[in-house]
Structure formats: C-alpha cells, structure tokens
Amino acid sequence: MVELLAPARDKKAVSAALNNNADSVYVGISDYNMRANVAKISIDDIADITRQCHDMGKMLYVCTNTVVDDKQIQKYKKQVEILEKYDIDALIISDIGMINVANKTSIPIHLSVQANTTNTEALKLYRDLGVTRAVLSRELSLDQISEICKHSPIEIETFIHGAICVAMSGRCFLSSYFYDRNANNGECLQPCRQPWMITSTEDKQLIVEEHENNTLDHSRLLSPNDMCMIEHIPDLMKAGIDAFKIEGRARPADYVACVTKTYSEAIKLYEDGLWDIKSRELIPGWLDELRSVFNRGFDTGFYYRIPSKTSYDNKATYKKQDIGIITNYYKKVGVAEIKLWQDLKIGDEIIIQGNKTGSITQKVESMQVDGENIEYIKEGLIGLKTDTQVRQNDHVYKKVEIENMGE
User: Where are the transmembrane segments (predicted)?
Assistant: First the structure.
C-alpha cells in the first residue's frame, strides 16, 4: 500500500490531516523550516504532536531542510537530541552536514526534494550516508521516476499535489535579490507569483500570445500552475512510488483536510480495484473539491511533459469568513453552542477548526435560540447540531463564494 503524506503548518492542520486519513504528517520547526514565514510549530510542540500521531497509528516527520552554516549546525545537534527523545519517525534533510549529525541518532533520515535527486547512483550514495527514503526532484518525468523506482536501494517519495516552484527544486534566489530574504532558509516572499513584463535593452516588450490549445497568462511568466495528479492515481501507483506527498505547509487546516480526504478516497478506490468502474463518475467531484480551496489552476507538472501553463492568483471558489467561536459543546446530544458575530442562515456551509478538531465542514440544517428553531440570525448565541465532536474555543467560519464576498 502506498503512504499518503500530508503537510501541516500548525496543530489544526495536523488534526485535519489525521482526521482525513493521512498515513503520515510532515511539519517544520523554527530555525530549520522552509516555510518560516508561516511556521506555527515549535520544537516544544513536537512531543504532543508525535503522541497524537502515534495514538492514531500514524507517523510524524520533521522537516529540517534549510541551508545552514557552522553556527546553525551546532544548534541543530542539540535540537536533534531533543527530537530523538520525542520519538519522531523521520527527519527530512537536504544538507549533507545535517545528515551526518542526524546519523548519530536513531532517527530515520529522509532526503528532501531540496537535494534535487534525479538518478539512482545518487540514491546509492545517500543510502551509504544513512538515508532511508528520498523525495525525488519534481523535474523528473513519470517514466524516469518509474525507472528509478525499479532500481532504487531506498524508498521513493514524490509530490502529487500543490505548488510548483519556478526554480529547480526550489533553489531560488529571487527573494534574496529583491528583498534580501533567503528563500533557501524558508524566507521566500514569492516574487515569482507577481505579474512580470520582459523588456529588452531596446525597450521592446515580449508579449506571449495565447496558443491554440493553451491559455498562457502573459503577465505571470514565472508562476506555474499547481500540480494536481488526482486523475492519474493508477499511473502513479504502477510506477512503484512508496509515498505520495501533498505540498502545502503554508496552507490552512481546511486546505489540508480537503486535499488529504480527496486523495485518500482516490487511492482507496484504486486499491479496492474499483478505479475502472467508478473513477469516471467520481473524478469531476474530486476536482470540484480541490478547486474549492486555494489553488492557482491545475497542471500535471513534469510527470508527462514540461509544464506549459502559468497561473493567475488564487483560483479557489470560496473564502472563509470568520463568524464565531464555539463556547460550549454538549457531547450527549452532539450540539455546539456558538457565539456569532456575523450572520448565519439555514443552508449555509460552515467550517469549524481547532487544534484537536482539525477542520470539519458541514451544512447548517437547523439552529436554535433559547430552544426555538430559527432560519436566520444576524449575531448572538445559538445552538447547532454538529456532524462530529467539536471543542470549546474552536473557530467557526462561513464558506462564502468569492464573487459574493462583501455583498
């Protein structure tokens, strides 16, 4: 069976991944996090998160895949000792020096995509250095990945969904050039996602025309569409890949819940032998779900060809509107007491998020004030039956179609 690996930027996202059938979760920690701008997990949080994962029979991997100097290596030695005591399941590393440090512990080592691994000979060398799994470069085709899987001495992991960097396996220096921020230490400000214009020394502008079978946005030449392989699960499974990885450690819990659940369903359908029978019916719904959360449009990356589509801004079909908080939960009757500061009506779809709750989405089918059923409320305290257990201080959001925001 293939392993489904989901991202998490905070405790809410960890719970969202676990509650939606991720086999493993990967997180970053401060100082060595390639998503430093949005990191909300400290090394002190790892003990609780590890227990949460292990209690559910899942695994936790910790990313320490930044570029480091001698001073940072010394601090890393101390942090690795702490992580070993927390019994994490693997460290994700790209730097050879950090691999050498990690080898002095019992923690398994996974090679980060930042190492840009593209061939079997490199995998043999990394095996000799103590690496047990490698995340292959995103620039490889499916045929190349399949061939590597046949001969690899270690486990193979590949990305199947999420953002694609314009630079080779994320080795980008645009943020350093424009903002004096180090993208290779987790400080990427994504200047590639901005509109750009190419002008020659003679002040002539490059205009990218729309091709017959393509829809290039000429102003965002450096911003690829997101990868989405939900329609191609059989090809990925047949390639012999050991773990499917979802990109998104900068994304909120509802994104993690949606994408993890969707890919989990697709993988199960294939493993149950029902792909040929039911996939045609289910794929449109899966794509609608994936489009509902943050995305820049979808492509298949380098799996089948060179990516040819560039992206606009976020193309999600809804946004979250902060409308309230859970003030109490009555477990026997499955009813949440919610303090609302925005309006809510029957038929609205809400998202409830919390560190233990993760992220759940449900439609409002009934709500009460002082025991009386109501259809609409502008603000105030309500009772609402939930599909699953929620907790005090969980945040409540309303899903609002983007074109209707602000109406």
Answer: none
Strand segments, DSSP code E, in 198-317 are: 198-199, 205-206, 226-228, 243-246, 298-299
d(CA 269, CA 317): 26
Three-class SS state of 405: coil
- For residue 31, the model assigns a pLDDT of 72
- Residues 220-254 pLDDT 10s: 667 778 999 999 999 999 999 999 999 999 999 99
**63-118 pLDDT, tens digit each:** 998 888 899 899 999 999 999 999 999 999 999 999 999 999 999 999 999 999 99
Q: Is the dihedral of CA 112, 107, 243, 268 positive or negative?
A: negative
The whole-angstrom separation of Cα 77 and Cα 267 is 38
Reported pTM: 0.83
If you search the block for the tokens 């979760």, which residue do you land on?
Answer: 25
For residue 211, give the DSSP letter: P
Question: Could you state, in order of their start, the residue ranges of all structural domains in the chain?
Answer: 3-299, 318-404
Q: How far apart are CA 251 and CA 153, in angstroms?
A: 33
The residues facing 351 across adjacent strands are 361, 397
> Tokens 């590949």 belong to which residue?
158
Q: Which CATH superfamily is domain 3-299 in?
A: Aldolase class I (3.20.20.70)
Residue type, 76: Y
**Closest by Cα among 362, 368, 370, 366 to 396:** 362
Instruction: Tell me which residue of 18, 31, 21, 41 sits closest to 249, measured CA to CA.
Output: 41
**Contact indicator for 257, 19 with CB cutoff of 8 Å:** yes
Residue 353 confidence (pLDDT) above 80? yes
Q: Which of 47, 43, 54 is nearest to 18 (CA)?
A: 54
CA distance 35 to 230: 25
**What's the topology of domain 318-404?**
Elongation Factor Tu (Ef-tu); domain 3 (2.40.30)
What does the CA dihedral 174, 101, 81, 113 come to, rounded to 10 degrees? 40
What span, in angstroms and rounded, lies between the C-alpha atoms of 2 and 346?
40
Question: How many other CB atoms sit within 10 Å of the CB of residue 138?
Answer: 21
